Amino acid sequence: MQKKIAKDLLSIKAVFFRPQEPFTWASGIKSPVYCDNRLTLTAPEVRSDIENGLAQLIKENYPEAEVLMGTSTAGIAHAAITGHLLNLPMGYVRSGAKDHGRQNQIEGKLERGQKVVVIEDLISTAGSVLEVVDVLREAGAEVLGIASIFTYGMKKGLDRLAEANVKNISLTNFDVIAEVAAEEGYIKPEEIKQLIAFRNNPSDESWIKQQKQNTKIGN
User: Fold this and answer.
1) Contact of 32 with 176, CB cutoff 8 Å
2) Of the candidates 19, 13, 74, 12, which has an alpha carbon nearest to the alpha carbon of residue 196?
3) What pTM did the predictor assign?
4) Spatial distance between the Cα atoms of 165 and 93, rounded to a whole number of angstroms
5) Contacts of 187 (CB under 8 A, 6+ apart)
6) How many CB atoms sit inside 10 A of residue 218's CB?
7) Phi, psi of 30 (to 5 degrees)
8) 145: burial class by Cβ within 10 Å (0-12, 13-18, 19+)?
9) Which end of the chain, N or C, is surrounded by fewer C-beta atoms within 10 Å?
10) Mean pLDDT along residues 34-52
C-alpha cells in the first residue's frame, strides 16, 4: 500500500520533488519537496485509493474506533469519506473556537469517553495535529491515535508524538516516496541521500550544497 499511495501522490503532483530548485516554506526553510494532498480530492481514482486505504488502516489499527475527527481544514473531507466507508460518525476540530453561536471548536456530536481517531492529511512537526488531540482530550474523548495520508518522519514530529503518547499510522512516508520517485524517474537515484538529509534536519541546508556539487559533477 505504501508504494501504491506514493505512486498516486507523485502522479498528480500532490507530492512534488524539486531538489535542484528548492521551495521556500513559510518558516523560511528551504525544502526539496512540495506537498499538497488537497489535490487528491480532485483526482477520483487517487481519492478512492486514499479513502479505502485510510479505512483499512483504521480497521487494522484502531478497531475500537467510534468516531472520526478531521483536522481543519485538510482532514475534513477525508474524515467524511472514510467515515462513510466505515459507517462511523465524523466531525472536525476547528483551529479555534467560533466567536458566534455556540462558540464550538469541535463540530459534530462527541460524547465524553468516546473512542476517536483523528484524520490528518500530512504530518511534519506534528504541532497542529497535536493541538487537535489536546482539544479532543479536554472534551473527554479517548483519542486512540491518528490516521494520516503522508508523514515526513521528522525527528521533531516523532518526538512530539511520543511525548504526547499519540500513535500515528500513515498510508505512506517520505522515505518510501523518495524511493518510488527515483524508481519512476522523478528524481535521480543519487538525490535520495540529499532528500533524507533534509528530512533528518530541515534547518541544515548543507544538503543544498551537496546537491549543487552533484549537479556540477553530472554536467
Assistant:
1) no
2) 19
3) 0.90
4) 19
5) 17, 19, 178, 181, 195
6) 8
7) -85, 130
8) buried
9) C
10) 96
Contact call for residues 77 and 41 (beta carbons, < 8 A): yes
Q: 181 with 17: CB under 8 angstroms? A: yes
φ and ψ at residue 19, rounded to 5 degrees: -65, -25
Query: Rg of the chain's alpha carbons, rounded to an integer?
Result: 18
pLDDT tens per residue, range 102-114: 557 999 999 999 9
First to last CA, the chain: 37
| AA letter at 33 | V
pLDDT at 93 over 70: yes
In this structure, which amino acid lies at residue 132?
A: V
SS3 labels along 54-116: HHHHHHHHCCCCCEEEEECCCCHHHHHHHHHHHCCCEEEECCCCCCCCCCCCEECCCCCCCEE
User: Cα dist. 93→6, 63, 79, 101 in Å?
Assistant: 27, 22, 11, 16
